[in-house]
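Hi Y.,

Following your request, here is the sequence exactly as I used it, all 239 residues.
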Amino acid sequence: MEVSNFLSKSAKIHSPYVSNASFIYGASTIGENSIIDPSVIIGYPIRSKTKEIMLKRESISNLDIHYDKKSSGTILGKKNHIRAFTTIYEGTELADHVETGTNVVIREKCKIGLGSIIGSGTIIDGDVVIGKNARIQSNNFIPPKIRLGDEVFLGPGVRFTNDLYPVSSRLIETHVKDGAVIGIAAVILPGIVIGENSVITAGSIVTKNVPKEAVMMGSPARQVMTRIEYDRKKNVYEQ
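Below is the corresponding structure, written out as tokens. Let me know if you'd prefer a different format.
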């Protein structure tokens, strides 16, 4: 059985570890020794471009060629591992040593920093910045205008929001500063600033800015201890 794939002639592929069942569109760059698993799509065109293809009512017997012409490409650094069934849209940049799990979607205009890991089933919905060595666990939803600092940790199923009055035409930024930890199934309201090295415990709903080094719990979240106290308890627990 013939394996379906598409490798753009415009792409710059510097790695021998690109599956023959992957799809790479536009002037994408695949850095040295990056691994691209089967059924991965790199450089997928944005919605307006795919819609334009359909509206022209041209023959689409080879849709890959149309996608390739429209895509501006994706930039992947060195030693990335993009696992199966991941789609990365055009205009997004991944630094070196970035990993994704399976079934990840990273939309356009995202920047993901050195050494960050994006867990399976996560959706990064465009115009998102993630710093260095972030750990994003499975099934997270990160909408546009979210800014995550270095060494941020998100437990599974964290939900960010970016619209105070949905559905409005104004989306606002939320900032999670360096070293912050957000537990499973927490909800972060729009426009919040979560301070450096703070902790949001599991299931909390954050409705206001969080001071650095604070540990927040509940709905709405309130401070219950400091990061120093939290780390002391963690150290006892780990013994």
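Helices lie at 47-55, 63-70, 227-238.

Thanks again,
Q.
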